[in-house]
UniProtKB/TrEMBL annotation:
Protein name per the record: Phosphodiesterase
Residues modified as 4-aspartylphosphate: 79
GO biological process: one example: phosphorelay signal transduction system
All copies of domain Response regulatory, residue ranges: 24-148
UniProt entry keywords in alphabetical sequence: Phosphoprotein
Lineage: superkingdom: Bacteria
Domain HD-GYP: 313-510
Pfam family, one: DUF3369
GO molecular function: phosphoric diester hydrolase activity
Amino acid sequence: MSEDDLLFMDEEETESKDEVVPWKILIVDDEAEVHDVTRFALSGFDFDDKPLLFLDAYSGQEARTILAENPDIAVILLDVVMESEDSGLKVAKYIRETLNYTSVRIILRTGQPGHAPEKSVVRDYDINDYKAKTELTAQKLYTLMLSSLRSYRDIVCLEKNKRGLEKVIQCSRGIFEKHAMDQFVEGALEQLVSLLFLDHQPELYSYDGLAVELKDTTRLKSLCSHGKFTTRGDFCLSDLPEDVRCIFKEAISQKKNIFRENDLVVYCEGKRRAILMYVDGHHVLSDLDKELLDVFTKNVVTAYENIEMYEKNQQRTDDLVAYLAELTECRNQFVGRHTQRVAAISAKLGEYLGLAPQEIAALKTAAPLHDFGNLMLPEELLHKSGALTDEEMTKVRTHTQRGADMLAQADQEILKLAGRIAQDHHEKWDGSGYPHGKAGEDIHIMGRIVAIADVFDLLACKRSYREPWPMEDIVRYFEDQKGKHFDPDLVELLLTHLDEFIKIREKLPDPENISDQ
């Protein structure tokens, strides 16, 4: 394969992405000496191999400012009496009730113990400890800091685990909403990254990602990528950088998730295919992180198998619709490739209208069955070259409802949509159409679209009983029928993008002998 098919941006030597983040300790006291003594007593202190980072506030207002800017403060050593007799208590209330910081450990230190009764303060202000400054020796302060940080760590860990489980549920719900394989894989990779960067914003964090389909043990197909990977189409495992290749090989051979210090591969195997998602640049994972990812992977596999089944059923439905459309064409010797053009023109109109991609796809699939009811009409009536009598016209008009009734019995949603199109594509915007005389937006939007596509193509076709209309006459007809026969907004789209619709007709011409029959 060429270098253009699989490119990797140059990798630069970088420092470890997992820097040691210190524990933030906020000292709130109006006496500078208290700050100095506290720093001295706790100098050299570390917990879980992380040092302390001291932040200093000399009033309640300064404390509020620092707290608002630092939601990850672990411990607060808080004086009670500062600019007012209850400054510290007001700060504690601000922390718990306004900022809603529940994890931070608050230790009240006071030089006037009787001023704020310990029992009521601890209870009413959600204080974690209450100490008189005179009783806090260096050893006791060390012990207090150790127990407070241990408590903070455990609370944060529990909160993170809870968020992780919530994120797994949220991510799983997101991927189960995907029905197209490409959307599913892209969404699964995004959800995986959001789970890995639970405490960060993934879009602001540097990472590299790659999702592939496993073709065999040595060949892969790129499905989506991020960062240094700029893959396209099929490629060989040997095309990957050596370190990435090794982890892919391990995941493929063991058929399971593989975790390394800063990268991982999630292995998802369905009944027909397997996909692998690689992410590099995340933090070191804990055992619980890995368990959460295993749960997420199982949900991805379930969703993956559902999509495989959906695609298989969708293919069967598409094949059935194609067969029914072909059957309809075979009944009418004049139809040529009319139904194919109606489908393509309808899809393009839907695109210009702003329909969602899945709606456009459904419209394109269902549109060829707009005249499905013709299967119930006598052959001599379908093939009559001259003008129809009133009685014959009445019979012909039954094809809309008969086709709709027949298609409405199907279980597949696409056939039900085809039934609505069959019923409504001869209705008119002003209410003068058939079979029910619907008007305006009471006519199904898909029926309104197909009505324009059907007439536009028929007028441009040559038939044994008439020549094709010149395009300028077709344009005049639609301008005249705007707001009468047809939805005026859709007519505007047709005429604005007329060249595109002419190109569709040119790409799907009738067989040479069709107009002579």
